[in-house]
Amino acid sequence: MSTHRRRVTTVVLALLPLMVVAAFSGSRTVQTEPAPRSGVANISGTWSGTSDWEQHGVHSISGVTLSIDQDDRAVTGTLAFTSPAYQEWSGTIAGTLAGTAPDTQFVGTIDLHAPASAGGGECGGTAVFAGRSVATSLRWDTSRMTIGPRREGVAASACRGALRSVVLTTGRD
């Protein structure tokens, strides 16, 4: 081996530990939990974003937060609306994930609770939602959710009625 080649080899070997340290340091990346054993995306955790819908030709939008628990393909959680006009709206989530990451799909129900607009009482509705669920974003929708009385004595007119094209779009917090 030539003298030049030995020097290059010595320099490379001497610098190798420094290059390894530099390669594994630097900017931090967001660590998510490993994918569940079935290979679906891990969507457990806290999410925030928006919910929007149409009713009687009027488009409404609200901020939302979701808190999701996941056991492999099974998903449960809660939903809270954060915009001032809808702060008392909340719900529960129950569903299943299908496919493999990153193209994981959610299908499940959201049971929504909302106060009656007059006279007290509670309104609510349940609808099947479906959509894409990846490690960093969720987009779930339903074509229609009807919000009606949950207890005797609450007039149907005190509840929202039919909400059309309901869409939840969120990102991981």
Structure in words:
This protein has 173 residues and is mostly beta strands. It has one helix at 3-23, and strands spanning 45-55, 58-71, 74-81, 90-100, 103-115, 122-133, 137-149, 161-172. The chain has one domain (45-172): Lipocalin (Beta Barrel). It contains one helix and eight strands, in the order αββββββββ. The protein has an eight-stranded antiparallel β-barrel. Strand 1 (45-55) and strand 2 form a beta hairpin. The model is unreliable at 8-31 (pLDDT under 50).
SSE topology sketch:
Layout: H1 3-23, E1 45-55, E2 58-71, E3 74-81, E4 90-100, E5 103-115, E6 122-133, E7 137-149, E8 161-172
Antiparallel strand pairs: 1-2, 1-8, 2-3, 3-4, 4-5, 5-6, 6-7, 7-8
Summarize the model shown:
This protein is mainly beta and 173 residues long. The chain has 1 helix and 8 strands.
CATH architecture classification name: Beta Barrel
Q: Tell me, rounded to a whole number, the average pLDDT.
A: 84
Number of strands: 8
How helix-rich are the residues, as a percent range? 10-25%
Written as H for each helix and E for each strand, in order along the chain, the element string is HEEEEEEEE
Shape: elongated
Give me the Rg, rounded: 25 Å
- At the first level of CATH, the class is Mainly Beta
> Structural class given helices, strands, pairing?
mainly beta
N-to-C terminal Cα separation, in Å?
57 Å
Number of discrete domains: 1
**What is the CATH topology classification name?**
Lipocalin
Strand order across the largest sheet = 1-2-3-4-5-6-7-8
Largest sheet: 8 strands, antiparallel, barrel
Which ranges are low-confidence, i.e. pLDDT below 50, for 5 or more consecutive residues? 8-31
